[in-house]
Design a protein that fits this description.
The complex is a heterodimer of chains A (325) and B (348). Chain A is built from 13 helices and 2 strands. In chain A, strands 1-2 form a two-stranded antiparallel sheet. Chain B contains 15 helices and 2 strands. The radius of gyration of chain B is 22 Å and the shape is globular. Classes of the chains: A mainly alpha (325), B mainly alpha (348).
């Protein structure tokens, strides 16, 4: 009897649908955490966040097919490359623009311009390696390069593990370290933080680097389970936005909650609808995050982390109930 | 040789006209009212898909053809319709006007739906919603073959088929004429008191609110109007290319490019936007025209080089010439003495 939860877990592992859901939502969480982080600090939604992940996808491909090294060894490089590009985007584009007093719309357009550059660069790179090394660089799939553990795909364990490590580290970093507390102070009030000797610019640079790095990490793992293409990241952008918004853009762990919520809703929702209404539903998968996003914006615009859960505390709940009875 | 150059010029203008309409409509939203519409492709694709869906079926019904397998027998049905339209000028023109009108209505509805969830929220939310919603039309068009033939696309009846070999010239002139009408309309609109209200909302929303203006309602109306105009542009483009395929209406070509045109030309200046559109389209056409020559030297498709340069150019414009080629000009209002005489009339 006591092993029932354990057997349920094994059953979940056996059901391929849940495996897909776990992998997809873990990767989505890494992406939406980064998006929420940059939105919190610089107050601009990064429209090229998806393409930063695509950079990671191509680092993976290069390691696997050109250097013939296991994909997992490419992860640090994917992290560094995407982080560096995101940092570059902040230093070269966003910072000079906001120094000139550019509006949020202008900053958003600038991230779109950067998206164009990244998309073009990725396509050029894909063409280039396809021509030089004679490998498939579009619509590729690296599932075969993954290791197997307990008769399951390795990514099934690695992806949630990375999310756990990243969120724990982020939590400890933001609450226990000096720089993390300085970062939270900058998020709350940049000018006040500046007046007590915190360098907001350093905080911004760090958050852009971290955000890009997490996107690169997610991208590096992505081709192990999904099809990689120069525009994979751009297509994922809708899900990333939906995850960040439904989790709440004003709290760093909004990305965590939203990522799992939207990821599971997308994978399980599509599969259940398909079994209910027929397979024609499957291509309309992006509509699910979209609906979730629209509903969140209409009902709780600040997202789940923006909700007030004060009433759940024992005293408050009791007081509320007394009001009614 | 002259023939090729003439064709090149016609093609240039024919691409320029629909983009001019879309860029002008974006200018009304972004330039004058500060609405970050990153989902322009939704209404453009809406208009184009309506052209793929409606006029063929309608004409087939009128001519008494079997429409039960419209997509499967598309080529055959369209050929029969075009044969009939060759002699039937009235039917062609009424088909054209009816389709353009319903495309505008559809565009207006799409604009309303796209902006509804986030219209009351901050512009970041609105921008993200627009971008996400913008993909919907493409997904539907690509996966639901009954609409525009899915992956294969559909042909469209040609309402200018009676012009014979002057067909391209005629439709180009027609599109340019419509674009000019849109330009004049928007010029009048933005020079009117309403135009000043839009700028007031853009520059200081709270001030506009304090003057008793319903900012959200006006923003919504602007989005609806501009989406209708953008759908008109999409519909015209579909008639020009005489076939519709969903993949042609992607985020990059119908949202990001119009943004580049508006910012290059100068936001909140219609003439500037027209100039920006022309420069953009001309440069791209030249790159495509001389693609073979470039193609020898680089080991990838030149299209991507063109996109790379575009992104860099956009960032440079934002950094060093953010007001665009022709900056926004102060609004010309009624001269002061005339105003004063009016005032005295009211007072007396």
């Amino acid at each position: 009897m006591f092993y029932y939860p354990f057997s349920l877990f094994v059953l979940m592992l056996l059901e391929p649908l849940y495996r897909d859901a776990i992998i997809f939502s873990s990767l989505l969480t890494l992406l939406s955490l980064g998006l929420t982080l940059t939105f919190l600090t610089t107050k601009v939604p990064n429209f090229c966040h998806g393409s930063l992940a695509t950079l990671g996808i191509y680092v993976s491909l290069t390691f696997d097919k050109v250097f013939l090294i296991n994909v997992y060894y490419s992860l640090p490089f994917a992290f560094l490359l995407s982080g560096f590009i995101a940092l570059l985007q902040y230093i070269l584009v966003l910072k000079p623009l906001s120094k000139r007093g550019a509006s949020v719309i202008t900053l958003m357009v600038a991230t779109i311009a950067f998206e164009l550059i990244l998309l073009a660069a990725l396509n050029i790179y894909a063409d280039y390696i396809a021509r030089i090394f004679k490998i498939t660089s579009r619509y590729f799939f690296l599932r075969g390069s993954d290791f197997r553990f307990a008769n399951q795909q390795g990514l099934l364990f690695v992806a949630p593990l990375i999310v756990i490590i990243v969120s724990l580290t982020l939590y400890i970093f933001l609450t226990k370290t000096k720089f993390g507390i300085a970062m939270r102070a900058t998020i709350e009030n940049p000018s006040l933080a500046g007046s007590v000797g915190i360098n907001p610019d350093l905080v911004y640079r760090f958050s852009w680097f971290l955000s890009g790095g997490l996107a690169g990490l997610a991208g590096g793992l992505l081709p192990l389970s999904f099809i990689g293409n120069p525009d994979t990241g751009s297509f994922l952008l809708i899900s990333i936005f939906a995850a960040s918004i439904s989790g709440g853009l004003f709290h760093i762990f909004g990305g965590l909650i939203g990522g799992y919520l939207i990821g599971f809703a997308e994978v399980l929702g599509t599969a259940n609808l398909a079994s209910l209404m027929g397979t024609w539903v499957i291509p309309y998968r992006p509509v699910i995050p979209l609906l979730a996003m629209a509903l969140t914006l209409l009902l709780i615009p600040r997202g789940i982390t923006g909700l007030s859960f004060e009433f759940l505390k024992s005293g408050n709940l009791w007081r509320k109930l007394k009001l009614y009875f | 040789m002259a023939q090729i150059e003439a064709l090149f010029l016609i093609d240039l203008i024919a691409t320029f006209a629909p983009y001019m309409i879309v860029a002008l409509s974006l200018n009304l939203e972004y330039g004058f009212c500060g609405i970050p519409n990153f989902g322009k492709t939704l209404s453009v694709a809406g208009g184009a898909f309506l052209v793929g869906f409606l006029p063929g079926r309608l004409a087939a019904q009128i001519l008494g053809l079997d429409t039960s397998k419209y997509i499967e027998n598309n080529a055959k049905i369209i050929t029969m319709i075009n044969n009939a339209l060759q002699t039937n000028l009235l039917l062609s023109l009424s088909l054209l006007i009816l389709t353009l009108f319903s495309a505008m209505v559809l565009g207006a509805i799409l604009g309303f739906l796209a902006s509804y969830p986030a219209i009351r929220l901050r512009e970041e939310y609105l921008a993200m919603t627009f971008l996400a919603v913008g993909e919907v039309m493409l997904i539907i068009g690509y996966n639901y073959p009954e609409l525009v033939g899915g992956t294969l696309g559909v042909s469209v009846p040609d309402p200018f088929v009676w012009a014979g070999k002057y067909r391209f010239l005629l439709i180009t002139i027609f599109m340019l004429f419509i674009a000019l009408l849109v330009f004049i309309y928007l010029q009048l609109l933005t020079k009117s008191p309403l135009g000043r209200l839009l700028r007031a909302i853009r520059d200081n929303e709270n001030a506009a609110l304090a003057f008793g203006k319903d900012v959200i309602k006006i923003r919504m109306k602007v989005i609806i109007l501009s989406s209708a105009i953008a759908a008109l542009g999409g519909a015209l483009y579909a008639f020009y290319t005489s076939n519709v395929i969903a993949t042609a209406y992607q985020r990059v070509s119908w949202t990001f490019w119009p943004w580049v045109m508006v910012i290059l030309g100068g936001a909140a200046n219609n003439l500037g936007v027209v100039l920006g559109t022309f420069i953009f389209v001309a440069v791209r056409k030249f790159i495509i025209f001389y693609k073979e020559i470039f193609g020898i030297y680089v080991p990838f498709d030149v299209v991507w080089l063109d996109m790379l340069l575009l992104g860099i150019a956009l960032i440079l414009i934002l950094l060093y010439k953010s007001e665009g080629l022709i900056p926004e000009k102060p609004i010309k209002t009624i001269e002061i003495h005339r105003n004063q005489s009016k005032m005295s009339k009211i007072e007396s």
